[in-house]
Amino acid sequence: MKPRARIWxxxxxxxxxxxxxxxxxxxxxxxGSMNKAAKEFGMSYLHLLKKIKTLEKRLGKKLVETSTGGxxxxxxxxxxxxxxxxxxxTRFRKLADRELQRIFDRVYIN
Length: 110
Known about the structure:
The protein is of the alpha+beta class. It has a single domain (18-104), classed as Arc Repressor Mutant, subunit A. It is built from 4 helices and 4 strands, in the order ββαααββα. It has a two-stranded antiparallel sheet with strand order 1-2. Strands 3-4 form a two-stranded antiparallel ribbon. Helix 1 (19-31) crosses helix 2 (34-40) and helix 2 crosses helix 3 (45-59). The longest helix is centred in the C-terminal third of the chain and has 30 residues, at 80-109. The model has no long low-confidence stretch (mean pLDDT 95).
């Protein structure tokens, strides 16, 4: 058996981000495209854009940068702040999962 928990970060009692928004940012980084990331999650480009803009506003940081057309085509990538948020949340999530497993083992196994 393995425990699972939903974890998110709140600010002023309101959810700010968690696994869902982190997955969206990871998809944008992986695809280099907001449109492809939106399709992966079954949402429109505009819906994803609204989620990202809202998150950027609440964090006070720019998370994505978009380039338009040209020879190599356009695309979207995470800014340094966007990559930092992913890195920190991923580390936090791994530590939380490890601690959750430790507590679970202590209660259910030992």
